[in-house]
């Protein structure tokens, strides 16, 4: 079995060098249609290299079909242009082609002037450009999802615009099997994926870990959000806080060859206002230098009672590309403040969970105050020594400060909805350094082609945390009462030593071997990982409200390493069908006892998680489907509701089946969604009341269906709907308490005015029926989003 090597703690794809040039004979064919799906005859379709060298050109026939053949020593990435009278020119960057492969690529044109170009970055599979066809796969680089022997999804910034998404969680809601675990209007974004918690704040950015806002990362400067399902440290390196559920990677925006200027403004029924500016263009000969600037923010009352938020974010992306060298620098700044934050509610045992209150209700009022500020800088680059050997590297730094005071932990104590809320003062200072260096060699052994990657990563996170519990208050989920605000808080942490230090490093060697003219791909590799954790002590309130450092004296550190093998394979069958399988063994950092536990912040030793997965993928024109069957096992972390102690009790074994479908099912209707069936069980707990029971907060069935319809006689009018459903979930590990099944309907629409200056109007109605329900019980009772109307307008210059 051949191997391709890469050495990385995270995804190296953004910094990895592009694939080498090769002598290819490829075909590109498809159908050109308008927004309603009607054929566009006599459209000119041309292909050129990214440097502007024209390769081939043709004209569509009466049924809108075209076919191009590309032969020669050419790069495997191109720019496609499609022009037709009465339509805006469609430009697609970074279109990938493969040897002896006929790629089917349909193009959809919008009404307008041919001088107004619509540029995209080769991520679309559906006519509206919301679903990505490529994803960064760590040591494997950026590849088509259909060529990856793993379950991967990808959503573009077009979806963010069309759905008026405000957070990463809003985007992830489109993915089957994902639901928010902590409630929609919390300061923390947590979701569940494949039956495990996935902290959104642990997402990668351009494949690099540790650099996004650890609570609620901004999507202002994000071009694509990718979801890699299941353990992925072989590809992406060890996560600072564990990533058994999977990995979210956010790809930053950079300037395309066509200048881009866009302004958007929005308003919600809760009087929250928002605005966005996005502009980019390229400079120098051959458009070598690109600059992309994004600014945005929102402020005002949210749909939740007694809650206000102010969010501001900005990003700057600068990139340079030459024949052998490429580099990019990304800088971002995000500030957020919130009054009346609403978190999940813990549940005492011994009674039936009462029905959910109104989703606008909030047991916390303005007495709870939260602020957060995060800054990040990331530099990446690569150099191609020749067609066979490349080197790449990256360095990133992030710093974030946060503080909270007010009722911060709540416990539901009876079936009448009574709650005990406890005051919490919390502040933190976190600084992160991450570095990566890798090499890639392409070679052949007979008829087998190898991409061998060797790479190494280092991630260091230093943190100073201070927290203190205070008084308790009685309230009720149905009739919240005013809570007295705190009048004291721990002062800033400037000059106070770190309370903890995490160091994670890894070396990976991997081989991607392809044979049978690209039909067979076998991936094998080994990653050595080392995780070190030091607990220096804690910070408490001292005299005059100042921080008082208390050194750690017992079980203050650990270091552990392990070499983890992984193997995966994919075989492409005729007519767009392929089958795949993978086995991944991951070393993950142990969990940390959460706030609310008696042993809060206790760090547990690293553990090994394993995934076995088999599946099939299908692609035909703009339609793609994936069927996956998997099993994941990991040690089980549980908060004991009686002792309030968080600990490791046995193992959680999840077995599941996922089916996803995305693309055009008929000319004017596009869908994205699927079905997830999951059996999550506790094993070896040593307790007859929990052993063999379903894992807490994990539904057995989940489904999500998004549909968009282009109104035939109004080709600029788009109507959409999304239905999400979940089966019942247990609230405790013994399965004696539960929350009921739920379903939710969201609808929306937009109208694109195809004028010289294109204007888009959008309206969305979330939770149409005003359904009151708990969305999740994994981290406590997580409130769903209430019925909310959102409207926005955008102008592109």
Quick structural overview:
This protein is mainly β.
Q: Care to count the β-strands? A: 47
> What is the first-to-last residue Cα distance?
53 Å
Largest sheet: 22 strands, antiparallel, barrel
Name the structural class.
mainly beta
Overall 3D form? globular
SS field, number of helical segments:
3
Mean pLDDT across all residues, rounded? Answer: 85
* Computed CA radius of gyration, to the nearest angstrom: 26 Å
Which keywords apply here?
single chain, mainly beta, five-stranded mixed beta sheet, 47 strands, disordered N terminus
Give a description of the structure.
It is a single chain. The chain has 797 residues and is mainly beta. It has a 22-stranded antiparallel barrel. Strands 3-2-5-6-9 form a 5-stranded mixed sheet, with no helix packed on it. Strands 1, 4, 7 and 8 form a 4-stranded mixed sheet that branches. The radius of gyration is 26 Å and the shape is globular.
């Amino acid at each position: 079995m051949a191997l391709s090597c890469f050495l990385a703690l995270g995804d190296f794809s953004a910094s990895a060098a592009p694939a080498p040039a090769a002598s290819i004979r490829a075909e590109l064919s498809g159908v050109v249609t308008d927004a309603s799906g009607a054929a566009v005859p006599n459209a000119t379709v041309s292909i050129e290299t990214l440097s502007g060298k024209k390769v081939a050109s043709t004209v569509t026939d009466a049924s809108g079909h075209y076919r191009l053949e590309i032969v020669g020593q050419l790069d495997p990435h191109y720019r496609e242009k499609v022009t037709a009278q009465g339509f805006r020119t469609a430009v697609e960057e970074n279109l990938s082609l493969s040897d002896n492969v006929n790629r089917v690529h349909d193009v959809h044109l919008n009404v307008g002037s041919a001088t107004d170009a619509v540029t995209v970055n080769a991520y679309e599979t559906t006519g509206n450009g919301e679903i990505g066809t490529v994803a960064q796969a760590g040591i494997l680089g950026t590849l088509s999802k259909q060529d990856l022997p793993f379950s991967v999804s990808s959503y573009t910034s077009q979806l963010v615009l069309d759905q008026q998404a405000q957070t990463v969680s809003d985007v992830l809601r489109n993915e089957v099997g994902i639901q928010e675990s902590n409630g929609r209007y919390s300061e923390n974004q947590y979701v569940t994926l494949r039956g495990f918690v996935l902290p959104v704040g642990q997402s990668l950015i351009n494949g690099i870990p540790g650099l996004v806002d650890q609570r609620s990362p901004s999507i202002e400067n994000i071009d694509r959000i990718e979801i890699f399902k299941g353990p992925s440290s072989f590809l992406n390196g060890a996560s600072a806080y564990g990533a058994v559920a999977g990995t979210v990677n956010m790809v930053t925006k950079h300037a395309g060859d066509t200048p881009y200027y866009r302004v958007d403004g929005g308003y919600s029924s809760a009087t929250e206002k928002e605005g966005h500016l996005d502009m980019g263009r390229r400079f120098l000969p051959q458009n070598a230098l690109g600059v992309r600037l994004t600014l945005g923010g929102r402020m005002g009352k949210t749909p939740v009672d007694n809650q206000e938020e102010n969010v501001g974010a900005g990003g700057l992306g600068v990139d340079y590309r030459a024949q052998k060298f490429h580099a990019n620098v990304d800088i971002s700044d995000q500030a957020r403040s919130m009054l009346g934050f609403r978190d999940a509610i813990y549940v005492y045992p011994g009674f039936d969970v009462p029905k959910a209150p109104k989703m606008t209700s909030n047991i916390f009022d303005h007495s709870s105050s939260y602020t957060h500020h995060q800054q990040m800088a990331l530099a990446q680059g690569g150099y191609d020594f020749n067609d066979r050997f490349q080197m790449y590297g990256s360095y990133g730094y992030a710093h974030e400060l946060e503080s909270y005071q007010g009722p911060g932990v709540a416990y539901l104590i009876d079936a009448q909805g009574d709650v005990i809320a406890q005051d919490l003062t919390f502040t933190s200072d976190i600084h992160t350094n991450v570095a990566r260096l890798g090499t890639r060699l392409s070679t052949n052994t007979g008829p087998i082609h190898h991409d061998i990657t060797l790479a190494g990563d280092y991630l260091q996170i230093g943190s100073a945390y201070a927290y203190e519990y205070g008084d308790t208050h009685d309230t009720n989920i149905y009739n919240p009462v005013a809570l007295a605000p705190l009048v004291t808080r721990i002062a800033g942490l400037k000059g106070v030593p770190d309370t903890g230090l995490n160091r994670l490093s890894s070396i990976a060697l991997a081989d991607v071997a392809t044979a049978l003219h690209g039909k067979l791909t076998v991936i094998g590799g080994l990653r050595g990982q080392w995780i070190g954790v030091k607990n220096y002590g804690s910070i408490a309130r001292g005299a005059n409200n100042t921080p008082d450092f208390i050194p750690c004296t017992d079980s203050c550190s650990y270091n552990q390493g392990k070499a983890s093998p992984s193997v995966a394979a994919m075989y492409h069958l005729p007519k767009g069908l392929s089958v795949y399988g993978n086995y991944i063994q991951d070393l993950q950092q142990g969990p940390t006892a959460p706030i609310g536990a008696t042993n809060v912040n206790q760090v547990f030793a690293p553990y090994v998680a394993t995934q076995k997965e088999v599946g099939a993928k299908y692609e035909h024109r703009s339609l793609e489907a994936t069927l996956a069957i998997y099993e994941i096992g990991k040690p089980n972390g549980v908060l004991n509701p009686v002792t309030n102690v968080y600990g490791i009790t046995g193992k959680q074994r999840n077995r599941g089946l996922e089916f996803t479908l995305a693309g055009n099912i008929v000319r004017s209707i596009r869908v994205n969604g699927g079905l997830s069936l999951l059996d999550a069980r506790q094993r070896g707990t040593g307790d007859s009341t929990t052993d063999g029971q379903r894992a807490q907060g994990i539904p057995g069935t989940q489904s999500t269906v998004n549909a968009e319809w282009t109104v035939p006689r109004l080709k600029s009018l788009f109507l959409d709907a999304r239905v999400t459903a979940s089966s019942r979930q247990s609230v405790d590990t013994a399965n004696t308490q539960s929350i009921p099944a739920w379903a939710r309907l969201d609808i929306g629409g937009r109208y694109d005015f195809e004028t010289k200056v294109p204007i888009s109007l959008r309206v969305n109605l979330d939770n149409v029926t005003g359904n009151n329900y708990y969305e999740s019980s994994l981290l406590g009772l997580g409130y769903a989003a209430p019925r909310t109307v959102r409207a926005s307008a955008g102008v592109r210059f």
